[in-house]
Amino acid sequence: MERRKTSLPLAPADAALEPVLIPDCWYPIAEAAKVRADRPLGVERLGRRWVLWRDEQGQVACLPAACPHRGADLSLGKVRGGEIECPYHGFRFTGAGRCTAVPCEGREARIPAGLHVREQDRPILREAHGLLWMWHGAETPTAEPTWVEEAPEPSRRHATWEEEWSVCFTRVMEGMQDIHHFPFAHSKVDPWRGKAARLDPYECHIEDEVIRQVACMRRDEPEAPVLARFDVACAFPALLALRFGERITGVVGLCPIDRDRTWVWARYAVHTGLGPLMDRLAAWFSLWSEFALVQPDDKRMLASSQPQAATVHDHALVHADAAIAAWHKLRRRHLQQAHAVEDTTPTLQAVAGSKA
């Protein structure tokens, strides 16, 4: 069987025991619409810098951004005839990593094997649901990237947003699944300012590596009315589908840049009943409000949390954290399967005792 792996540098000391990257998983790395045939796109994902472009057939190509010749950043180059051209010396490469031109040596020169990108350095990619996905694992994937039906697909009614957070991936994933922080961490935009904090009911289920939460937030009073409802589905390890009332749906994709930074991407769709243009404007405004007014609170809380690269051993979880515990349980399972790590985590069994 073909063995190909994309690895993340392991440092500092505890990274070798609890790596940021979860093995044998798909990670969203870029919005597909931003990868074009007329110019390359450079991204930092999964501990490396990559160059992305489309070939003459419209297929996405991806290689390590460092030119095999002398390390120049290929994403600063040009796309010519479906191939990427190095900006430094004009060497050209196909999407399969084969060097096709060494201008300084002439057209008839034999190209050294060392100028071809090694097979183990070429990532496995998929284009699906308007995203590009990269496989991180030792084996060739046997399944496609997991999607959830609640997540909005690309359309004329959606808007997207992306940014980089200086927060470890595991912390961001915990924060994205945390419902009960809202009335306290977001008190500036929360009309109840901490008064509506009880989750009742709160349900969390796992099926086929999808973690689903449904919760109602109300005041801690007898027969208090529901003030907010939350519907969150997490497709392990790095995709979340959200519903805000009856009109707004969203999907959030995350990818580790390195041990301390995370790429955060979101797509919102809004149904105003006033046509695609108004829907798109409403979606953009919803995203702007979310990332300008709400998410800065999360970034501040997550960046200040210790330790920065958290595992479930660092927490004392409660029932409302069941989704976080379930996510760590799936993470531990992948680590067990890949590295034969023994699971001795009673917190997971107590808090996330589900059918996962």
CATH-defined topology of the largest domain:
Naphthalene 1,2-dioxygenase Alpha Subunit, Chain A, domain 1
Question: Major sheet: size, sense and barrel closure?
Answer: 7 strands, antiparallel
Summarize the helix and strand pattern as letters: EEEEEEEEEEEHHEEEEEEHHH
Query: In angstroms, what separates the terminal alpha carbons?
Result: 28 Å
Estimate what percentage of residues fall within beta strands. Answer: 25-35%
Structural class: alpha+beta
Count of helical stretches: 5
Helical content, roughly?
A: 10-25%
Number of domains: 2
Mean pLDDT: 86
| Overall geometric form | elongated
CATH class of the largest domain: Alpha Beta
CATH homologous superfamily title of the largest domain: Naphthalene 1,2-dioxygenase Alpha Subunit, Chain A, domain 1
List the helices and strands and how they pair.
Layout: E1 25-31, E2 41-45, E3 48-54, E4 60-64, E5 78-80, E6 83-85, E7 92-93, E8 99-101, E9 125-128, E10 131-136, E11 158-165, H1 169-176, H2 182-185, E12 198-207, E13 210-218, E14 226-235, E15 239-244, E16 248-256, E17 262-270, H3 276-304, H4 322-339, H5 346-351
Antiparallel strand pairs: 1-10, 2-3, 3-4, 5-6, 6-7, 7-8, 9-10, 11-17, 12-13, 13-14, 14-15, 15-16, 16-17
